[in-house]
Amino acid sequence: MDTDIRYSIVIPVYNEETVIDHTYRRLKKVMDSTREPYELIFVNDGSNDHTIALIKGFRDQDDAVKLISFSRNFGHQIAITAGMDYSVGAAVVVIDADLQDPPELILEMIAKWKEGYYVVYAKRTKRKGETFFKKQTASLFYRILSASTDIEIPTDTGDFRLLDRRVCEELKRLPEKNRYVRGLVSWVGFRQTAVEYERDERLAGETKYPLNKMIKLSLDGLTSFSFKPIRMADYIGAVLFFSGLIYLADMLLTAIFTASAIAGWNLVIAMQLVLTGILLTMMGIIGEYIGRIYDEARNRPLYIVSECYGMVRKERKVKRVV
Ligand code: UDP
Ligand code: MG
User: What are 170-183's pLDDT values in tens digits?
Assistant: First the structure.
């Protein structure tokens, strides 16, 4: 390991050809100002535009640039994990490629790290240029998550953060596949602190987090850090069972002691619908957990690297003969 590297910057990239050049230059400027050795690890998460070619271009001029390229799109959280796996710096910083996270803040994070903190996360006080829907759903999600778990996961923070090597090594020991990295960082513990910032707009290009990826991420967050959703099934089930019983008793008693007949079919059908709906939801929740158990049980590798440049750790190479 070339241990003289102080800082490893991990940048997950997925089709970021429109911003990557700006990002690289701004990061380089900030990191040069530390006057300490660093590496910029770009993790290409299966981009199918010119992102890789651009990164290779940076690398030709600059030895600090390193590249890990996946064989396909494995997802943002996995890309971050791979970057950490390959990093060698004494501190590791994870930052988005779209300049929504201002690179200049890294200097503040480093200062906190030098004060003795092991994790310095960036807390958003404002989010610019994001839709009302995204902000509201994100805020709702963070609140539900923190209400349903005992681990203190800071609200309104993304993956933009600095981790001490020690924390990074501990994270590498957590083998789970459906990763919610921010939660895992909290789980690991150690002294953690925040620096605040206003989240900028994406510099260019479109978000790479469509609704389905956001839903997957929130479900990963909830299911890996809380059993409450699955327990809800018990509570709701019990409440329904007893209210059903009381309701039935009431109807029977009324029928026996008064002259009125038992209520019409509409009522039965309505009840049926409600109950089936709840049952299905609960089965869905259980399914979420079982699916994840299955994922863990299969024990597939987290990601497959197709090429990598400038890394100390080497991937298994199989020569291609055509
Ligand atoms: N990203 C990734 N793989 C994906 C989706 C996103 O590596 O499947 C990267 C993306 O290039 C960016 C970061 O993750 O650097 C955050 O994505 P984005 O900015 O699109 O998310 P948003 O800020 O809109 O939530
Ligand atoms: Mg973004």
Answer: 988 888 877 787 77
